[in-house]
User: Fold this.
Amino acid sequence: MKAADVNINLVDSYFTLLKNLSPNNKLELISRLSKSLKTTTKKKNDNFLDELYGSWVSVQSADELVEELKKARNFSSKREELCKNIFSTPTSAFIY
Assistant:
């Protein structure tokens, strides 16, 4: 099925749904749809990452920041032990 066929089917479905509206409701819907076509939408910026360039302000150099992050790491096997306990528990112990 082509995209055009899908769009036609979608329009037909909407028309079937909306054809029983009162004339005033139909006019209101037409008005709102017209306004939605007239409003300009902000163009999606394909280079949005470029806008972030230089947004991080720091007196530290990149190397100093990386070193600080590496020193702040905290490795623990607690999570692994928790997983081992969960998977070694018989399923009958769980309440569903």
